[in-house]
Amino acid sequence: MSPNRQVSSTILPPRKILTTTLLTRNTEPFSIVINEAHVAEIASWIDKKENTYSLINNPYEFKLLLRGTRDGFTANSFWNLCDKQTHLLVIMKVKGTNEILGGNNPIGWDKPA
Q1: Which residues are in the TLDc domain (predicted)?
Q2: Nearest to 89 by CA among 72, 108, 76
Q3: What are the tens digits of pLDDT across the range 36-57?
Q4: Domain span at 80
């Protein structure tokens, strides 16, 4: 407003543009029994959805806790790795067939005394 008055202002440094990077999911196959299409279908069953999740919008991340060929097929190996775990999905393939069996336990396992 005053033409003869010197302008004084604080000059802020330029803003930094932050680029958000999404966490990457592990894309290597975690199972030799089920594939990504099975995982999407199982996730849909867990959420009681009529339509199957697509391979990209599956809200769950599945982690392999026990593999029989790696950890053993005994009850002790199951209890050592799965005791007190919640939201468990147990999947198994019947030897000599293409049949896959399994179940979901959202509460978790508690080893009997």
Answers
A1: 32-113
A2: 108
A3: 899 999 999 999 999 999 888 8
A4: 36-105
